[in-house]
Structures are given as C-alpha cells and as structure tokens.
Amino acid sequence: GAVVSQHPSRVICKSGTSVKIECRSLDFQATTMFWYRQFPKQSLMLMATSNEGSKATYEQGVEKDKFLINHASLTLSTLTVTSAHPEDSSFYICSATGGTRSTDTQYFGPGTRLTVL
Amino acid sequence: DAKTTQPNSMESNEEEPVHLPCNHSTISGTDYIHWYRQLPSQGPEYVIHGLTSNVNNRMASLAIAEDRKSSTLILHRATLRDAAVYYCILRGGTSNTGKLIFGQGTTLQVKP
C-alpha cells in the first residue's frame, strides 16, 4: 500500500507553545488529507478534512484557530496546535487519499504523540 | 453516515480462523463496507472493502449478508500480529467527502 509519514513521531512541549506536525504522502499525490485525534483507550475522532490549495473543513466542535491546517502541496499537510495546553495531549494521526469516492482507500500515517506539560 | 455495531472485544487462538461481525442495519444501497484495523500505537491500516459480493484479498475475506445488513471479516489463520482494533465503517451513500467515521471497533486478542 501507499506510504504516509508523519513528523515528529513524538513531541513534548511546554504549555502555551505551538507545535507543528507534518504529514507527507511519499509515493502518491494526495488530493485530500484528514487529521484525527485519539485519546487513550478511545477511537479516532476526525478533526478536519484538508484539500490541496484550499481551506480545511473542520468538524463540529474543533477550533480552527487552535488547530491550524495547511495543505500547500499534493504531498504535504501540516497541523499546528497553537498555544498548546495539557488537555491537547493526544495521539494525532493523519491520513491521505488520492480521491474521495466510496471505494478510495485512506492511507494513514504512524501518528504523532503530543505531550503538553 | 450510517452506523455500525461491533462487539467490544473478541478472543482467538493463534492459527485459528477469526470471524469478526458487524451489524449495519441502516445501510443504504450505495454504501460500501470498509474494514480498517489499528495495531497498538500505530495509525490504522486498510484491510478490505466490499459492496454486495464477498471479497478476498491477501489479508482477509469479507462476507456480506444478502440483505447487506451485516457483514463478517474473516481472518483465516490468526497470528499474534493480528491483535488489533478492527473497525467496520460504511462509506458512500449520497456523501462523497471521503470521510471515515470511526466507531469503537472490536479489540481482537490473539492467544498463543
């Protein structure tokens, strides 16, 4: 299957700082990327949908000014957690797809574990 | 998106077949049934998908009921590496956003 990478894999930051997470599709052009958050022992929660060259679409309840998403190219999307607080500590996972048809597969990155002190 | 119902957990012995059920009684005629799995501390990975007919690939088989209100993911010989959370997700219908909405899934334990 296609390969999606995330960087960093793990980050620890102080409360109030901003953290940027990168998501790259390594061997295909991703017209759409998705960002998820997962708390311990819970399922993945979709945060936003990102299409190359346009503004991200956020799910209800997700603060777009706090979670800034940029999808500047067909292989890169970034999620910036601004003014991070301990409650933002979570496992952040991106996925990428070459299309949004019902049959299109999403390829997931390995995740980024964020710990805010 | 239509809702799916899965058992919270299942156990299997290594090298035995595993049948993971999923109920989706409100499935629409154009919804595809997708299965993803998530190994511990990793991102999910695609397993298989189908519409009406049973499907096979190198990872698993998908058996879809004739009325499409339920389906079963079949791992033919479970290995310890198959221990994961398995998610049954419906995609399609009138929406083409490409979103995957994850439920709680089934946590599969494989015993040696």
Descriptors:
heterodimer, A: 117 residues, mainly beta, 7-stranded mixed sheet, 4-stranded antiparallel sheet, 0% helix, B: 112 residues, 5-stranded mixed sheet
Structure description:
The complex is a heterodimer of chains A (117) and B (112). Chain A has 117 residues and is mostly beta strands. In chain A, 0% of the residues lie in helices and 50% in strands. The model of chain A has no long low-confidence stretch (mean pLDDT 93). In chain A, strands 2, 4, 5, 6, 9, 10 and 11 form a 7-stranded mixed sheet that branches. Chain A has a 4-stranded antiparallel sheet with strand order 1-3-8-7, with no helix packed on it. Chain B is mainly beta and 112 residues long. In chain B, the strands form 2 sheets. Chain B has a 5-stranded mixed sheet, with no helix packed on it. A 4-stranded antiparallel sheet of chain B has the order 2-7-6-5, with no helix packed on it. The radius of gyration of chain B is 13 Å and the shape is globular. The model of chain B has no long low-confidence stretch (mean pLDDT 93).
